[in-house]
Amino acid sequence: MYASEELKVNKRFQRLVQDRSLVRSSKFEECYNITDDMLLNYGANSFPHVECLNLANCYWFKSRSIEWVTSKCKQLTELYLVGINLTSKKICKILGSLPKLEKFSFTTQNIHEFDEEVNSVTEAQRTIGNLKHITIHFEVQESTRTDVAISVEIIHKISSFFEHCNKLESLHVLGQPNIGGRIPRLLVQPNVVKLDNLSHLQHLSLNCAIDAAARMFYYGALFSIAKLKNLHLSSASFWQSHRSLENLDLSNICLHKIFTEDCDVLEVKPHLQYLNLANTHVQGVNISLMSIASSCPNIHSLNLMSSKLMNKWTILGREEFDVNGFGALVRSCNQLSHINLSGIHVHCHNITSEICRCLSQLKGLKSLSLSPCCLHVEHHKESGAQKRPAEGPSHGSKKRRLAASTNVLQVNVTCL
Prior knowledge:
about 425 residues, alpha/beta, 6-stranded parallel sheet, 11 helices, 19 strands, elongated, LRR_dom_sf, F-box/LRR-repeat protein 18 LRR domain-containing protein, FBXL18_LRR
């Protein structure tokens, strides 16, 4: 019986070993015990089936081993070589052998030399033309500020690798955060001639602005994009394409600097559940509590910390709490369970009572954040004729009414 079970296990294991789909995505990052020989032995039968190969930060592998491995991965669509010291000639040779590649990340010590090499290798140009996502890590030669002679070469590139990028959708530039007081010896600013090559770009990022080489390259690309008259994004309108949006964070930004006047920031989003407008500057944009109430009917969590949306200007030019807008918001968004109103100052007793009345309509409210001033009510001394005794049925009934109308909530008091 034992031998029979062992035989079944061995057969299952054999089928598992022969299943080449398991190696389609092969990751060697942080696999410090893997030697060059082990890598080559692994790839002898597996690499023809690999579609995603991650060798990021595998600095101990020899360049000829990496070149041999990638030459065997004919089905490769993703290749990550960040943190590996390869010459521009090696990188272009690797690119030329991977016609199906779509995602590529690498480290360069001389982006100018890389551009020149790309322009001389037709196969590399063809592969770059199919790339949709590129990540470039800058690791350039540097000079310290204490050097006797500091030489910095600035090159404004016209024939960069961008001239061959026909399908580029994202570009990520990685600098060196620990560069400190060192100065790169070479600064390259790309000046793209074929601007249409950047018309499909949807993501452009820079991880560290301290690195001058990465910063110069990033803003050079951004400046070229700014020359475009049209950006062919995946949809005509960001907001129209996100009717299924569930989480939206617009905190700590100026809306009028990002969205044009003819853009409705809060077009109807029936599936939106989480909206963060904390410290959001809304001047110049058509957005209010009323618009939120009409556009986000199924919202569950709303963060309005220090938001000017809670206030409106009166005819007399004074700014006061928008009671009507807040009431409409509560009535329309009856699924609200988390509200953050911290940083909003309300010192009027009548307004505070109205806020409490509105909040009492939310039967599913679980958490509420308020400023301390919203919980403080000043008690003015009454005249002797109007003063009531401390003990009595009237005073006791008032206490009971307050207790009966109080919901059990988690209340966070934020001091700003």
